[in-house]
Amino acid sequence: MHVRSFQLSDCNQVTELLQIALSEECYENTIVPFSRQLAWDSDLIVVAEENDEIVGALIGTIERNNGYYYRVAIHPDYRRQGIGKALIECMEQRFQSRKVSRILVAGDEHNVAAAMPLYEAMGYGANKILKAFQKLSIVSHS
Asked: What are phi and psi of 136, to 5 degrees?
């Protein structure tokens, strides 16, 4: 398994992964922020690749000098194999290289329900959750 930066040629595979890995509602809440982050700073989207297939993706964003993990998606057949951990570690390095003040998890119902055990295992407990995630520019509807 190899973690790398998102490339434009990954767009279809990542979109398919998001559809497979996320609930329908979560997918619908993710696709616009994914597109916005792509347009603004695609370096904050990382993918995990296994045998030339994208099996994981993490969408991050930086706002007001804070780094945010917005959405992590792992293909159901590849879960519990360390892919989420590798994606978070890669994004954490990117955030640190940009000297963000702190790193938080965008705390919508999808992250809290599905991905919170992963984030907690990586040291991002309740005090590292941004509850007002709707205010993030990649999410806002204005």
From this structure: -65, 140
